[in-house]
Amino acid sequence: MMPRIAVRALVTGAALAAAPSFVHAQTGARTTGAAKPPAASDSVKGLPLDGIAAIIGDQVILVSEVMTAVNQARAGGAKVESAKDLARLEKDVLDQMIDAELLVQKAKDEKVEVADAEIASAVDEREKKIRGGFKSDAEFRAALKEAGMGSLEEWRKLESDQVKRSKLQQGVMQKLQRDGKVTSVNVSEAEIAEAFSVFKLRVGPKEARVGVRQIVVATKPSDDSKKRAKAKIDSLYAELMKRPEDFELIAKRESMDGTRELGGDLGWNRRGRMVPEFDRVMFSLNPGVLSPVVETAFGFHIIRVDRVQPAEVKARHILIRPQLDSADERRAKLLADSIAVAWRAGGSFDSLSVKFHDNASGEDKTIPEFPRSELPEPYRNALEGKTLNEIVDAFAVPDPAAGVNKFVVAQVTFLDDAGEWTLAEARDRIREQLSEERKMRRLIDNLKKKTYVSVRYDPDKQLGSDR
After folding, report:
1. Distances (CA, A) of 323 to 182, 252, 404
2. What are 200-231's pLDDT values in tens digits?
3. How far, in Å, CA of 282 to CA of 246, rounded?
4. Residue 2 has pLDDT above 90, yes or no
5. What pLDDT was estimated at residue 24?
6. In 3D, which of 151, 123, 170 has the Cα closest to residue 10?
7. d(C-alpha 231, C-alpha 291), whole Å
């Protein structure tokens, strides 16, 4: 079982994903409100119980929110050995919260949205991970109370807010990069060498890593199953032609993917995010008009565009998937086995992958290197003991969307044992990280110039107080 402090850090939201350091200390979910004139703070021995720490645009960050985030950071392992250390941590946390709020506000300006289903899925995964550290549900709920959460529902709401804010920040950065509004930043060899010692301290010893190139073979339905699915979608289309206003109700009743509970809502999408057949039809529709039935690798769709803006559309769909069974799985496994044989006999990876790789799955054909400890169990088991350039026998991996297995044929392209990093090994990672951090810093600095930012709380002034 994981150590209690690590579990507490997870419960309180202090365990953070890897990203540029000044952006992504998400320091817990915050609830911001419209800015208002600061009231006189109550205090005990000179320490404000609450008050406004900063104002960003029309949103406020409270001192209590900063302190909560600081406590989370300390529970997560941040070292505080003196009053100066604490003041420095408080300042860093406040700066990070300001940066995060600027990005969230920019995301709203850019109409970046995050689907409720995506948030719920991320929270489910996080809850599952945390629960794994406890012997029982009662122990888990006791830890929630110890962390100041009245209930699991309260924790899920706070976690949902945090996930949404994090995804909004990621989404706006990606959108601005796609739009060419974030320029690249060059990093010199001298800067990389200077950052190397910090890199080693931050990431620790090098993990054992492995790289592969792979062909993922999807389990596909039989012709009879496809005919039944087509008949079903045709009947829904006829129903919609009579009552087009029932699109969302029918999607909630019938659609066979994660958008079902949302009435088929796909959110805002740019060209190229969906498979080509779907993309082509979606961008040809006028708002409110039903598409004809569209077939993709996922099944059969009916699409409706709700709103349009330059280069983006907001759409809904109804998806009917052909049913899959064990016979379909066996057929996919035989195909994967034959691909492995052809590859070992000298077949071209490029030719085989073009013909057989399941692009619709989103699985990369090439994974240059990946920590062995983080590999999904099917990959970890299949690659155990394999040598460089060896082609691995086809192995099954779950396909949750389809409810069956798909099959992977892979070749080992990179092997590296655990140990100390060398500058040559870390160079590309450091260059990319420094470049990303500087791009983000430049963006945030520009946002600060265009947004009202007033910092009201100065941790250094608390050094003389009884902390």
Report:
1. 44, 19, 10
2. 988 889 999 999 999 999 999 999 999 999 99
3. 19
4. no
5. 33
6. 123
7. 16
Both structure tokens of 228:
């039944």
SS3 89: helix
pLDDT digits (tens, 9 = 90+) for 27-64: 344 544 444 433 334 444 444 457 899 999 999 999 99
Cα-flanking dihedrals φ and ψ of residue 60, to 5°? -120, 150
Angle at 426 between CA 177 and CA 412, to 5 degrees: 90
In the chain, what are the domains?
4-188+442-462 (1.10.4030.10), 209-221+325-416 (3.10.50.40), 223-320 (3.10.50.40)
Environment class of 249 (CB within 10 Å of its CB; exposed 0-12, middle 13-18, buried 19+): exposed
Q: What is the 3-state secondary structure (H, E, C) of 60-81?
A: EEEHHHHHHHHHHHHHCCCCCC
CA 13 – CA 127 distance, rounded (Å): 11
Q: What's residue 1's pLDDT?
A: 31
Crossing angle of helices 189-203 and 423-450, in 10° steps, is 100
147, 8 Cβ separation under 8 angstroms:
yes
392-442 per-position pLDDT tens digit? 999 999 988 788 999 999 999 999 999 999 999 899 999 999 998 999 999
> Cβ neighbours of residue 23 under 8 Å, at least 6 residues apart?
96, 99, 100, 103, 169, 440, 444
Distance between CA atoms of residues 230 and 321, nearest Å: 9
The whole-number pLDDT of residue 463 equals 64
Largest CA distance in the chain: 79
Which class for 327: exposed (0-12), middle (13-18), buried (19 or more C-beta within 10 A)? Answer: exposed
232: Cβ contacts below 8 Å, ≥ 6 apart = 254, 300, 320
Q: What is the residue type of 293?
A: V
